[in-house]
Amino acid sequence: MVDIKGLAEKTVRQAMKLGATHCDVMVADAKYVSAEIEKGSIKAASMLFDPGVAVRVFMQGSQGFSSCTGHDAKAVCRAVELAVSHAKAGTRDPDFRDLPYKSPGGRASGLFEKRLASTSVDEIVSMAIALADKAGDDKRIVGVNASVNVGTGTYALANSNGISLSQRLSSFELGAEAVARSGDKMFSGMDGLWSRRLDRAALGRVGESAKEHALLGLRQVKIPTGDRPVVMDPLAFGFILSSAIGGGVNAESIQRKRSYLTGKLNQVIGSDGLTVIDDPTIEWGPGSYAFDGEGTPARKTLIVDGGLLRSYLYDSYTAGKDCVESTGNSSRGSSLWSFRHVPSISSSNLVVTPGDSTLKEMVRETSKGVYLRVTFDSPNLATGEFSGLMMESFRIDKGELGPSIRQSTIGIGVVDMLSRIDMIGKDPRESFGVRTPAVRVSKARIAGSG
User: Fold this and answer.
1) Please, where in the chain does CATH 3.30.2290.10 lie?
2) H-helix or E-strand containing 235?
3) CA-to-CA distance for 184 and 380, rounded, in angstroms?
4) How would you class 94 by CB atoms within 10 Å of its CB: exposed for 0-12, middle for 13-18, buried for 19 or more?
5) Which of 83, 318, 421, 432 could form a disulfide with 251 if both were Cys (CB 3.0 to 4.6 A apart)?
6) Which range among 39-43, 165-169, 226-230, 426-430 shows the weakest confidence by mean pLDDT?
């Protein structure tokens, strides 16, 4: 077995001998097991071992990057030579300051579960079948898609400033979609799970939820265009927020003036009840880590505090450019790291502080509105405008949930959306890298076809 921590340290020394002024190396040893069911049949099942090395070097601020698959000494040496060559051929960057130095902290529990490391393809296939069976357990369900993905990895990071760290990460993800049909009406429902921990009971919960929402959508109605209150499910709000906040506060986008949040630090961007934290220390959180992709210890960052924008998210480069500390948001991937790409800024686990309402109370207190459960559209981060297809949405009439809404979209500026939040739920869940409850937006433009 390769000593990946030792390999990372050795590779840094090789790069420095070739003339690099700064260097960091990430060594990965990962395994992925997955199974996918499409329209009731097994589409794919696989186990992939994915070891590799990422080499990033700097010369007078000019960056060079290269990677190789595997841990073979010749391949690693070639990657080092290529990275140094790219840095020499690049342009000097006066904004580059330094790479991180070793510092205390960076403790996080619930990053790795041993049971996932020994999961076989047969076990994953059995889980996918069980998930699909649950989602399709009704004669009105005419199609089911389901997937189960498990990943485990050990990662070592070393740099020229003396950092030498390692951590183990695991990932467990489920997804299910059920398609229901009654006469000429069809509707699909979906759900998912994102965690670092094995949760077999979730197979039933996720499958049942996808089926129930597919069946619920068979009652359909068209609505006229107009302004309405919108109750957003954690699935919808989480997906929107992962981009609207996670991408919007990216310091690189801010410095390039490519974000709608540029220049809005310490200004109001949301209602006084909205607080959002980036927290990579959450136990079993899908984006949690002990240290980020550059070795900066994990730490919480208050982004939105009672509606006020308090911080952007930084890596070491953008932090040096703004003369602030890195927030520890250099990313090498999502739940598991990749050696194939240059590190970039990303949120870890965005957390919306819960309120005191239930989803049922939000619906009950909405006379005439919309319940948005699923959208897969993201805001325009340059302008802050959001226009999205409401893939799973339902009419709210006199405080009761009604039929699903056909052919409708939602349009609203992100700052307006966050500022108009007048109810926040008390039951959060993980969705798309965001831990959030449901929220109610007092008014948004709904473009219907009725």
Assistant:
1) 4-216
2) helix 234-244
3) 35
4) exposed
5) 318
6) 39-43
